[in-house]
């Protein structure tokens, strides 16, 4: 694998690691922000809606309550808006009217109860009666100049955990009037949910895999609605995760598109830079191949990168030294060859060289002349003589 490909691969891996880390952190922070924003918005809406419904909660069947809740639900920001009864109050008139054995309202109820598994019953002291009793403690009733108006007696049903959502409950009680004493009962339907508006969660363009991959948990928020000292109802607001998913998906898709564009631009810049950076290496490679073929050149324009510049200087020095050594060897070889093939005194070719030249002449059919000169050497012999004296 070439150096350029290795650099591209390393840069791509580093970029992927950095992008993945930033993407995960960005999505996580955005997800947490959207969860907090949705929960805060739901809590503010629950508080505001509770304040709007407080003047109307005295009559829990008021149709204006449903109209207000429906208007909030139609905004589409919430998947569930629910008003639950927190104070199950039952009047004496309701009990008498629900009983099949009592025919008029001239009855007084006593000893009212329900089965323990359903909960228990408490008698409610009205504000008017409490005020009258307080005034009675401070002043003598005769001095007040009026008598307290008799009000309908109210009972509070406190359900057990099993029946906290309400249902059909049987109330047992004793009814008395001037003539009769009857033990009877009344079946009343206790509805904990007074008004509920639900909207289906729709994810218009968010893919399912994205929803399954990144779960968004939005808590249900509530606000208590009180009437005097008692909490009479609770308004619950459940945020719609569709809006949060839409924003999160847009942010994630934008991050991916930006990362892809940044990656492509970075790779183009890297390609240009690497080609410019590796150009001196190609010159060094060409010089090495020329040295192998016996051509000893040098790199005239040195690169600006320090490491590659040092390599180029070293290659130039090596090329010059190898050229000098080879030139010296060639000169020595030429001198030795001339010494072996020519006579040092006359400069003529020696016999082995002459025979080789003659053979080459015949092989290549070239014209020429061959002179054969034979030399004869005479030896003067001096005979010994005898000298006579």
How would you describe this protein?
This protein is of the alpha+beta class. The chain has helices at residues 3-53, 63-73, 92-98, 127-138, 141-144, 208-213, 241-292, 306-341, 351-364; strands at residues 78-85, 88-91, 108-113, 119-124, 154-159, 166-176, 181-191, 193-198, 221-227, 230-239. The protein has two domains: 3-255, no CATH class; 296-364.
Rounded average pLDDT: 78
User: What's the alpha carbon Rg, rounded to whole Å?
Assistant: 57 Å
Number of strands: 10
Biggest beta-sheet profile: 4 strands, antiparallel
Strand content: 15-25%
- C-alpha end-to-end distance: 110 Å
The secondary structure category is alpha+beta
Order of helices and strands: HHEEHEEHHEEEEHEEHHH
Low-confidence stretches: 141-150
Question: Total domains, how many?
Answer: 2
Please give the share of residues in helix.
40-55%
Shape descriptor reads: rod-shaped
- What is the count of helical runs? 9
What strand order characterises the main sheet? Answer: 8-1-10-9
How would you summarize what this structure contains?
With 389 residues, this protein is α+β, with helices and mostly antiparallel strands.
Task: List its salient traits.
389 residues; alpha+beta; 10 strands; 2 domains; 4-stranded antiparallel sheet; single chain; 19% strand
List the helices and strands and how they pair.
Blueprint: H1 3-53, H2 63-73, E1 78-85, E2 88-91, H3 92-98, E3 108-113, E4 119-124, H4 127-138, H5 141-144, E5 154-159, E6 166-176, E7 181-191, E8 193-198, H6 208-213, E9 221-227, E10 230-239, H7 241-292, H8 306-341, H9 351-364
Antiparallel strand pairs: 1-8, 1-10, 2-5, 3-6, 4-5, 6-7, 9-10
């Amino acid at each position: 694998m070439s150096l350029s490909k290795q650099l591209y691969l390393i840069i791509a891996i580093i970029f992927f690691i950095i992008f993945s880390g930033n993407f995960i952190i960005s999505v996580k922070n955005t997800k947490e922000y959207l969860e907090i924003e949705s929960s805060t918005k739901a809590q503010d809406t629950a508080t505001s809606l509770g304040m709007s419904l407080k003047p109307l909660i005295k009559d829990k069947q008021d149709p204006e309550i449903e109209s207000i809740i429906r208007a909030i639900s139609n905004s589409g920001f919430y998947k569930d808006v629910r008003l639950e009864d927190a104070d199950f109050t039952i009047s004496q008139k309701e009990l008498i009217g629900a009983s099949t054995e009592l025919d008029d309202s001239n009855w007084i109820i006593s000893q009212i109860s329900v089965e323990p598994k359903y909960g228990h019953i408490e008698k409610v002291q009205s504000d008017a009666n409490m005020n009258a009793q307080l005034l009675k403690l401070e002043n003598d009733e005769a001095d007040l100049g009026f008598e307290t108006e008799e009000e309908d007696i109210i009972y509070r049903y406190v359900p057990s955990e099993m029946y906290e959502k309400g249902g059909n409950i049987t109330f047992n009680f004793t009814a008395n009037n001037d003539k009769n004493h009857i033990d009877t009962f009344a079946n009343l339907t206790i509805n904990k949910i007074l008004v509920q508006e639900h909207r289906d969660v729709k994810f218009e363009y968010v893919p399912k895999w994205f929803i399954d991959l990144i779960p968004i948990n939005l808590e249900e928020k509530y606000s208590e609605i009180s009437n005097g000292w008692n909490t009479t109802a609770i308004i619950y607001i459940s945020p719609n995760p569709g809006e949060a998913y839409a924003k999160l998906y847009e942010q994630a898709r934008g991050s991916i598109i930006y990362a892809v564009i940044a990656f492509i631009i970075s790779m183009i810049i890297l390609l240009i830079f690497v080609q410019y950076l590796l150009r001196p290496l190609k010159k060094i490679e060409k010089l090495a191949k020329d040295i192998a073929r016996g051509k000893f050149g040098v790199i005239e324009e040195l690169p600006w990168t320090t490491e590659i510049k040092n390599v180029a200087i070293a290659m130039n020095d090596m090329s010059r030294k190898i050229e000098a050594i080879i030139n010296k060897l060639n000169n020595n070889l030429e001198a030795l060859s001339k010494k072996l093939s020519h006579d040092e005194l006359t400069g003529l070719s020696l016999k082995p060289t002459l025979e080789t030249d003659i053979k080459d002449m015949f092989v290549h059919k070239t014209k020429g002349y061959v002179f054969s000169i034979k030399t004869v050497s005479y030896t003067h012999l001096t005979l010994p003589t005898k000298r006579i004296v």
